[in-house]
Amino acid sequence: MSTFKRGDIIEHDGLLAVVVGTSDDGGAPEDHLALWYGEPRCIRISKGGVGGQHPELWTVPAEYCSMAASPVVRH
After folding, report:
1. pLDDT value, residue 1
2. What is the dihedral of CA 23, 24, 26, 28, to 10 degrees?
3. Cβ pair 56, 27 in contact under 8 A
4. Which of 3, 6, 34, 44 is the most buried (most CB within 10 A)?
């Protein structure tokens, strides 16, 4: 059973990612996490971007991940 759950912000090899699936919820293979690292190359539609981008998810062994530091919330 994983100690991680959907929505957790984790660190994997120095990169921040969000857990979008676990083996417990059927979103990743056994003992793995499905991670979304974000997409920094997207451009806002209001700034001329096209929208409709496809998110890319990666599955990695949960043992390679740790909880990230507390986030800084901005508004």
Report:
1. 54
2. -20
3. no
4. 34
